[in-house]
Write a structure and sequence with these properties.
Elements: H1 2-11, E1 14-20, E2 31-34, E3 40-42, E4 48-52, E5 59-63, E6 70-73, E7 79-83, H2 88-91, E8 94-96, E9 101-103, E10 111-115, E11 138-141, E12 152-155, E13 168-171, E14 174-178, E15 190-196, H3 199-202, E16 213-218, E17 224-239, H4 249-262, E18 272-273, E19 279-280, H5 283-288, H6 297-301, E20 307-318, E21 322-334, E22 341-356, E23 359-373, H7 406-412, E24 414-433, E25 436-455, H8 461-466, E26 469-492, E27 495-518, E28 539-560, E29 564-575, E30 584-595, H9 600-603, E31 608-622, E32 634-641, E33 644-651, E34 653-658, E35 664-668, E36 678-691, E37 696-708, E38 711-715, E39 724-728, E40 731-747, E41 751-768, H10 772-775, E42 778-779, E43 786-790, E44 802-805, E45 812-815, E46 818-821, H11 825-830, E47 843-845, E48 860-863, E49 869-879, E50 882-892, E51 895-898, E52 937-939, E53 942-954, E54 963-977, E55 991-992, E56 999-1009
Parallel strand pairs: 1-7, 13-16, 51-55
Antiparallel strand pairs: 1-4, 2-3, 2-5, 5-6, 8-9, 10-15, 11-12, 13-14, 15-16, 17-20, 17-56, 18-19, 20-21, 21-22, 22-23, 23-24, 24-25, 25-26, 26-27, 27-28, 28-29, 29-30, 30-31, 31-36, 32-33, 34-35, 36-37, 37-40, 38-39, 40-41, 41-49, 42-43, 43-44, 44-45, 45-48, 46-47, 49-50, 50-53, 51-52, 53-54, ...
Length: 1010
């Protein structure tokens, strides 16, 4: 009886149970310990465990890396079901820094990490568009709203004038190229984003990391039961403001007649045909309603509510040996123009297999196939008095040269592009022993697109001039990257030593061709029958580019007593782009870090969790130019002679065009064997602070970058027979500060509130542009400032508004200053003006040099398109099963050229007249030669309610569905700004071209896990 009783008592002390994550997915490998003892076990593949305990009063502790530990009392029934929550702080401890990982607390460089859970509710074609405002020092501009459009990305400002300024994108170790349009990667597949900003962090990528690095890690295969996740987003878009168009045809006609009369031209709206034979009704006909036509062209051209769809289905499963993650995505995006669309379909497969305990194989394959039907740029501003069709049912054309009929163009023009991208990677990982691991990776990317274009002979300028014009453009790209490197990490008492050493090889090759045909006998098949064109006018061209980059990498990490850390990184790069004398370069960097909170005088400070100081300095290079600039190049030119076209080939290569309509050809192709790397040196001083159990954290960085030997084109004398040659010439500097603040304000079982604030300020300066003669610089007659024109010429001003000036920020505005509007002729004469420019109602330009005349010598700097600082704020809260987040993004201090300031129906009625002597707007006058002045420059500061999300996670106990969340997301909800155009977010040159209002998006999302 005693034996039986003992056995029964022992049997009652065996606890069984299961452990899952917050999505009810079983967790293998969870440690289950009887608190205060060495008695414990781990969960099996199905998350199950069995543990014999010593006492019924025991406490059980459940712990696993990446999850919050949980302690419970032993229940009477001896069966438990535990759900572990992810420890977001712990998960963010590991940061990817290139060719290895490092604990965030051990970072010596400047690296920012983004938790993708904060942005996965935002519908987007690429990850860059949702990074805006999320990372300190990362500037993202998205002026284009076309379907599938990319973004302009900068890290700590631009460092080059003619080379690439975009940071390098690295996906799962594969350096894919410049950031801006990572359309191949579905944002839903992304696990984490790490931004390497200073030279120490990015130096391991050498010349590829000269502009910073964005490292993207996609979701990895995991062990456990099969998990299926479905993410569905349906988005509707609409304008966030009204389109500024003429709604009153009478007022439109009156103001048009006034403008033409003031300019000395015959009024148009007089009830007669103009010189092209088009009848324009009189103002009286419009007032009485006798003219029957009024067309809302915006209703004809634009969709009311463009829809987009984003569907992702992923499957994750694995055993202790093999695991995989497979996701498939379908994305479609309707543009605001009718028949302007983009859609893509793709998949992402990742497989991990442990061949042996110390030898692993990782494989990934990504495919993305897209289709773009371009139908943007249609004339929604077309005169509303014109009908769509004439009395015969044909398109109503305004004369024989009407190339702006939006319906005719949409019905007859062809512009389609089909693309495919494939990214394949295989990696072998060999753990030689615990401290030493060898990795060899082979990456290959293939991309291609085919662009079909046809311009009919009646409704388009290209087609009319050529009796139909067709073109087929083809492009193929191959990118092969091979990397082999070893990582060593081991402790020796108080010392810790880590090292990375390796070799990389990259080859990039593109081939392109273009087929053009003109003068078609029959247009029925458009460019599907190029043979129907006149064979004597056919155009054929092709191009091939090959580049190679060979590199050796080295990184050494040293730590002493977990308090003093040092990193030294070196990379040797050899690029085929540079001359035989300068193909190779060495780029070193070093960084030091001091964990003050580990010192005895701070170690016992109760609320201080981290206080770390960092300093780094390094040099990186830039090779972001086209290849073959160091070689003598041959080109082809066609010219018309004696009734026929002649093709000439010889030394020289067309590198650009100048003059009105690009009539002047600029020739390059002269070799420069001494061309070398553009180099940037960067100093970074930073600190990381964490307080109150990491609930409040600060990261602050000050940096200064200096770029020299800028890759630029020098102007040559006409006697050389060339116009341009590539040289190293000039210097640019960037200096700024970054501040990130994260706060967990309230955290309890039912309610939480957290926030993050990001402040970023960057000041750039053109330090040197080389000599006046060799660089073709212009000297300002008033200040002696040396400058050159930059960017695009504005036809309305017949000048370049942007300049690069020594001692000034990049792309400042250069033009005239104004002092209101002239109120009478004498005031205009006294201001140094004459002729029409001196009349009442004209701009009063300022005589800068005081010589009594207004001419080119009176121009000066009148604006700066670079922001003074950027600021963003995110607030996140949860209440039980509800979650809510709002994100504000702002840019302050930048100037914007509003080219539409006096070209909109909303402002034209406020023009100067004798009975309305306005000092804000000039009079209406056709034929005015407008000077570029500060009158066109506005403050482009703004604060945008960029994103808002409200979600609800449904409590489910069903075995089929593990979790379900439904949410609504609003994007670009409202913009606070004094800018008078539709939206102040423009390109980096600061020019606002008009267009249409920015789109507001509302998304309904559903996230299911099975």
């Amino acid at each position: 009886m005693f034996l039986i009783t003992t056995i029964a008592g022992t049997a009652q002390n065996i606890v069984t149970g299961t452990v899952t994550d917050n999505q009810e997915v079983p967790l293998p490998g969870v440690t289950v310990m009887e608190e205060g003892t060495s008695n414990g076990t781990v969960t099996n593949f199905d998350g199950e465990f069995t543990l014999e305990i010593n006492s019924m009063d025991a406490q059980l502790v459940f712990s696993s890396i990446g999850f919050v530990s949980q302690t419970i009392s032993v229940p009477e029934e001896l069966t438990v079901s535990i759900k572990l929550e992810e420890d977001l702080n712990q998960l963010s401890e590991v940061v990817v820094v290139g060719y290895g990982n490092v604990q965030k607390k051990d970072l010596t460089g400047s690296v920012s990490s983004l938790n993708t859970e904060k942005v996965e509710d935002i519908p987007a074609n690429s990850i860059e568009r949702v990074l805006q405002g999320r990372v300190a020092g990362l500037q993202v501009s998205t002026p284009s709203q076309d379907p599938g459009a990319g973004a302009t990305v900068r890290i700590r400002g631009g460092s080059s004038l003619r080379g690439s300024n975009a940071p390098l994108i690295v996906v799962d170790g594969f350096p894919l190229g410049d950031a801006g349009n990572l359309k191949q990667i579905n944002p839903a597949d992304i696990e984490s984003v790490d931004v390497l900003k200073d030279a120490s962090a990015s130096a391991i990528y050498g010349s590829r990391g000269a502009n910073g690095v964005i490292i993207i890690t996609t979701k990895q295969a995991k062990e456990g039961k099969t998990t299926i996740r479905i993410q569905q987003q349906s988005t509707v878009s609409y304008f966030n403001s009204k389109v500024d168009l003429w709604r009153d045809p009478v007022l439109m006609a009156q103001l048009n007649n006034e403008s033409r009369s003031n300019g000395g031209f015959q009024p148009l709206y007089i009830g007669a045909e103009n010189s092209t034979g088009v009848y324009y009704p009189s103002v009286a006909e419009l007032q009485s309603g006798d003219w029957p036509y009024f067309t809302r062209w915006d209703d004809i051209v634009f969709r009311d509510t463009p829809m987009s769809n984003n569907t992702t289905v992923s499957v994750n499963s694995g055993t202790d040996k093999t695991s995989f993650n497979l996701s498939a995505n379908y994305f479609s995006d309707m543009g605001v123009y009718k028949d302007d669309d983009y859609d893509k379909v793709g998949y992402n497969l990742r497989v991990k297999h442990d061949v042996f305990e110390n030898f692993k194989i990782r494989f990934s394959n990504i495919l993305s196939k897209g289709t773009r039907n371009s139908n943007s740029g249609l004339a929604y501003w077309r005169n509303p008095i014109f009908p769509i069709y004439d009395d015969n049912g044909d398109y109503f054309l305004v004369g024989t040269n009407d190339y702006n009929h939006p319906v005719a163009i949409a019905d007859n023009r062809l512009d389609d592009t089909k693309s495919i991208d494939v990214i394949t990677s295989v990696a072998f990982e060999y753990d030689i022993y615990d401290a030493l691991k060898l990795t060899s990776r082979f990456n290959y990317k293939y991309g291609e697109y085919i662009n079909d274009q046809y311009f009919p002979d009646t409704y388009t300028q290209a087609g009319d001039f050529n009796n139909g014009a067709a073109r087929i453009n083809n492009w193929q790209g191959h990118n092969l990257v091979s990397e082999t490197f070893a990582n060593y990490d081991e402790n020796f008492g108080d010392h810790r030593l880590g090292a990375t050493v390796g070799f990389t090889y990259e080859k990039y090759m593109t081939r392109s061709s273009s087929l053009g045909a003109f003068d078609f006998v029959n247009e029925t098949l458009q460019n599907e029958n190029i043979g129907a064109g006149n064979p004597e006018l056919n155009q054929v061209s092709n191009n091939k580019i090959e580049t190679e980059l060979v590199s050796g990498i080295f990184r050494l990490n040293y730590g002493y007593k977990n308090k003093y850390l040092a990193t030294f990184t070196g990379r040797v790069d050899g690029s085929s782009k540079f001359g035989i004398n300068n193909k190779w370069a060495f780029f070193p960097s070093g960084a030091l870090s001091w964990k003050l909170h580990e010192e005895n005088f701070l170690k016992n400070v109760e609320d201080l969790n981290q206080l770390k100081l960092r300093v780094s300095y390094g040099v990186s290079g830039n090779q972001g130019i086209s290849p073959y600039q160091t070689l003598s190049r041959y080109g082809v030119s066609q010219y018309y002679d004696n009734g026929s076209w002649v093709t000439a080939i010889g030394p020289g290569f067309e590198v650009g065009r100048a003059g009105q309509g690009g009539i002047e050809v600029l020739w390059g192709g002269i070799p420069n064997p001494d061309l070398k790397w553009e180099t940037t040196s960067q100093l970074d001083i930073g600190t990381d602070i964490a307080l109150f159990d990491d609930r409040l954290s600060f990261t602050f960085d000050y940096y200064k970058k200096h770029t020299k030997d800028l890759l630029r084109e020098r102007i040559l004398s006409p006697s050389s027979s060339y116009d341009r040659i590539w040289i190293n010439n000039g210097e640019i500097s960037n200096e700024g500060i970054e501040l990130s603040i994260n706060a967990g304000i309230i955290e309890n079982d039912d309610f939480s509130l957290s926030s993050n604030l990001i402040f970023y300020m960057n000041e750039n300066e053109v330090v040197d542009l080389g000599g006046v003669a060799e660089s073709g610089l212009t000297i300002d007659p008033n200040t002696g400032m040396q400058f050159e024109y930059s960017g695009n010429s504005l036809e309305m001003f017949r000048q370049y508004p942007n300049i690069l000036a020594v001692g000034q920020p990049v792309n400042v505005f250069y033009g005239y200053k104004t002092d209101g509007i002239i109120q009478d002729l004498q005031e205009g004469v006294d201001a140094g003006l004459d002729g029409d420019l001196a009349q009442a109602g004209e701009f009063k330009y300022v005589d800068i040099n005081g010589d009594g005349l207004i001419n080119l010598d009176d121009r000066t700097i009148i604006g700066d398109p670079n922001p003074d600082f950027n600021l963003s704020l995110g607030l996140n809260t949860t209440y039980k099963n509800f979650d809510f987040s709002i994100f504000f993004n702002g840019s302050f201090g930048q100037d914007v050229i509003n080219t539409q300031k006096f070209n909109q129906p909303s402002n034209l009625p406020y023009r100067w007249t004798l009975d309305n002597p306005s000092n804000e707007y000039p009079r209406l006058r056709d034929g005015r030669q407008t000077y570029f002045s500060d009158w066109w420059v506005e403050d482009g500061s703004f604060v945008r309610v960029q994103n808002l999300t409200l979600g609800y996670t449904m409590p489910l106990n069903e075995r089929l569905i593990n979790s379900a969340r439904i949410y609504i997301n609003g994007n670009n909800l409202y913009t606070f700004t004094d800018f008078e155009g539709y939206d102040p977010e423009v390109g980096l040159d600061g020019i606002y071209w008009g267009g249409y209002p920015r789109l507001r998006q509302l998304t309904l999302g559903l996230d299911l896990t099975f």
